Amino acid sequence: MPIQLPLRLLILMIQLLLSQRLSNLFRRNDGGRHRLAVTLVLSLAAALMLIGCSSTNADEAPRDDEGSLVGVGEVGINRLRLGDCFDQGSDVVSSTSVEAVQAVPCDEAHDQEVFYLGALPEDDYPGDQVTADLVAEQCIAVFETYVGSSYAESELDIAYIYPSQDSWGDGDRGYVCSLFDVTLESLEGSMRGAAR
What we know:
Blueprint: H1 7-18, H2 21-26, H3 33-52, E1 73-76, E2 85-87, H4 90-94, E3 100-104, E4 112-119, H5 128-147, E5 156-161, H6 165-169, E6 174-181
């Protein structure tokens, strides 16, 4: 599923975070956990924005016959698959030419895991905040199905990327939901069914 993310999305994410609207999506009575989640979402959004600014045919990390990653390597942001694990890496955040993530087999230490790939309806663009809310709601709704524990009770949190108004005009409806350890510790193994 191709995902096209212009630089405008990064600016939008920063504006949303500054306005505290996005942070309200993470607000729970958790002693400040939502602030950490919002910080990571901003970092991941910036990284994924830089990655998604252009489509790529980056060399794929090796996969087995079922499509699971079996080696470390780059995977273009538009080539991520359900269950792929990857590292965010500081070079992703600081570079403007990154077009891929460093994918790793999930049995090795990793930062993120893709737990859902979705598409928004073929309607008119609903607006930036509505789009963010729709994607956040969908990611939270499918979280328990993938992880095996509810989002509210989990030690994991979510990050996501979604179409901007500009990419919507180009036909982009795809979004990616990924999960990470709320303490920012590396994940070991797939979180599918881990009940964490």
